[in-house]
Each structure stands twice: as C-alpha cells, then as structure tokens.
Amino acid sequence: MLKGNKNVPIILALLLVAAGIFNVVDPMNFHPDLKNQIWRVINFVIFLAVIYYAGGKKLFTFFPGRSKEIESELNDLAARRENAEQKLADVEKSIANLEEERAKLIEQAKAQGEALKSEIIAKAETAAELIKQQARVSAEQEAKLALEEIKAELAEQVTEAAEAMIRKKLKAEDHKALINDSLTRVVLN
User: Fold this and answer.
1) Percent of the chain whose predicted confidence (pLDDT) is above 90
2) What does the DSSP assignment read for 67-111?
3) Whole-angstrom distance, CA of residue 72 vs CA of residue 85
4) How far apart are CA 165 and CA 58, in angstroms?
5) Fewer CB atoms inside 10 Å of the end CB: C or N, the chain?
6) Do residues 122 and 114 make contact, with C-beta atoms less than 8 angstroms apart?
7) How far apart are CA 177 and CA 179, in angstroms?
8) For 98-154, what is each residue's pLDDT tens digit?
9) What is the DSSP string of 110-148?
10) Cβ 60 vs Cβ 7: under 8 Å
C-alpha cells in the first residue's frame, strides 16, 4: 500500500493521532463506549486508505511535481530577467553611442558639403573662365568683321570717289588709253 514514498506512513500516523485527539477533545462526539470509539477510528483509517488509493498517489506526486515546476519557472524567469537586463544594457550602450554616431555623421555631412561646395565653386570658376575666353574670342571676331566691313565700305567709297575724280579729270582719250593699258596687262599676265 505505501511502497515508494516514505512520507506516506508518517502522514497517515499523524492523521490517526489527529483523529484520536479530535475524538477525545470534543465532548459532543465522545462516546463512553470504547469499542464504538475504536470502530470510528478504524472507519476513519479505511476512509483515508480509500481516498489514498483513489487519488492520494496523485496528490503526493502533485505537490513535489508542482514544486519542481515552480522551481523550473523561477529559473526560467531568472534567465529571462538576465537576458532582459543584458538587452537593456545593450540598448543603453547603443543610446550612449548614438550621440557619438550622430556627431560623426554630422561631421561627415559637413565635410561632404564643404567638398561639394568647393567642387561646385571650382566648376563655376572654370565655366566662368571659359565663358570669358569665348566672349573675348567672339568680341575679337566681331571686331575683325566690323573692321573688314569698314575697310570694304571705305574701299568702296574710295573707289567711288576715285572714279568720280577720274571721270572729272580724264578725257575720253585718256580713258581709252587706260582701258587699253589695263587690257594689255591682263593679256600679258
């Protein structure tokens, strides 16, 4: 009946002693007949044995199993707490490093901005110099064209003026001599 668990006989003995004490102490329940009293105790022990066989083994295995389960849960909670504390420390460390990273990123952005600014200014200066050179070349070309136009107009005006003067001063004979002279030169060349 009580194999495997050495606490069961001690518990049953305590229950019997308790039942005897309750029967002796309670004057309403006390019977002067000792035989009747013994049968009551035997009846109580049989009742306890039936309860033990019906579910007592489960009761005795439940409490140690439950205590192991609670101990396992406490260990699991301790491990989870340590894990959470580690994660908290990591987050706090990353938050502390976040300020340093932010400062580094700002410095990098400023350096990149300055480099980009310098590059844009250099490109703008190069483009401005190129525009100036193109403007100089264009101005020189326009000046040459204007000078050539002026020379052409001047040559035309000089030719017209010379022609007009020659017409006034040249007579028909002189005119024929000039034409013949010009023709002779053209033929010889």
Assistant:
1) 25
2) HHHHHHHHHHHHHHHHHHHHHHHHHHHHHHHHHHHHHHHHHHHHH
3) 20
4) 149
5) C
6) no
7) 5
8) 888 888 999 999 999 999 999 999 999 999 999 999 999 998 999 899 888 888 888
9) HHHHHHHHHHHHHHHHHHHHHHHHHHHHHHHHHHHHHHH
10) yes
Is the pLDDT at 79 greater than 70, yes or no?
A: yes
What's the rounded mean pLDDT across residues 29-45? 71
Q: Kindly report the pTM of this predicted structure.
A: 0.33
Residues 18-36 have pLDDT tens digits of 766 666 555 555 556 767 7
Q: Is residue 22 helix, strand or coil?
A: helix
Contact by Cβ (8 Å): 20, 41: yes
User: Which residue from 45, 50, 58 is spatially nearest to 11, judged by alpha carbons?
Assistant: 45
Q: Nearest to residue 98, comparing CAs of 106, 86, 109, 112?
A: 106
Handedness of CA 22, 26, 31, 34 (dihedral sign): positive
DSSP assigned state of 56? I
Name the H helices within 26-52: 34-51
